[in-house]
Amino acid sequence: MPFAILFPGQGAQFRGMGADVFHRYPGLTRFACDVLGYDLVALCRDDPDGLLSHTEYTQPALYTVNALHTFERAHREERRADCYLGHSLGEYNALLAAGVFDFETGLRLVRRRGELMAAASGGGMAAVMDTPEERLREILAQDGVAGIDVAGYNTDTQLVIAGPSDALQDAQAALRRRDVRCVPLRVSAPFHSRYMEPARAAFEEFLGQFAFAEPTTPVIANVTGRPYEKGAIVRTLSEQLVAPVRWTDSIRGLLTHDTPLECEEVGGRSLLRMVDGIRASSPSFSPA
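Below the sequence we write its predicted structure tokens.
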């Protein structure tokens, strides 16, 4: 039975996260605070200024907490994964777990990624429920809504769209007129869309400063829904900023194995619920 470990991304953060692991890894925690230049523990524990929901703070905080949970898991000698997957930001924890880079390198990468993504503005994202992509595009075309990208394929019943503020508002209005449920996401920019191209270019240049190993365990890439290709770390991580998160393809590819898929999520259950939804819409596959 293949065993996958999943890492959540932005949106999984909450006040009080990390309380169960910070004290167990005081050296790494202090090191993270030094690299970031602020008290990460206070940010996660108290969030006194409401900064935990800001992209440039969310990403290094969640990466660090996910990493400490992963180290704790290894310390307890729990079952080793056959593959790793992360949703958006979570992919960095998957790559860390697979030995592509060390904790410090990953922290520096997500800090810069968060800064670049936070600098983008003028748009947003929304989750669209129970509407296939073909029907979504048909609705937008019928109402003359342009400039919208599909930014995520979370399950067969949930897509994520992204675009400039005006276009996104028009898209949501068009969907509501047809009684399609559309939920705005609390983000500051149209992530995983063409509008992140300036951030992609800057991040690709930044990535070029680092050396990366090949994964010791397969990591499924958001960009392709397939395992990372050899020598493709820089290209894939930079492309991730402008490409949709192909989570449905990622999970469905694992469901094609002859034996049932078993999954464990680090720090939550939101991704497991997505897996359950994808599995339920794939009746030819045996349940785990």
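The CA atoms of residues 219 and 244 lie 17 Å apart.
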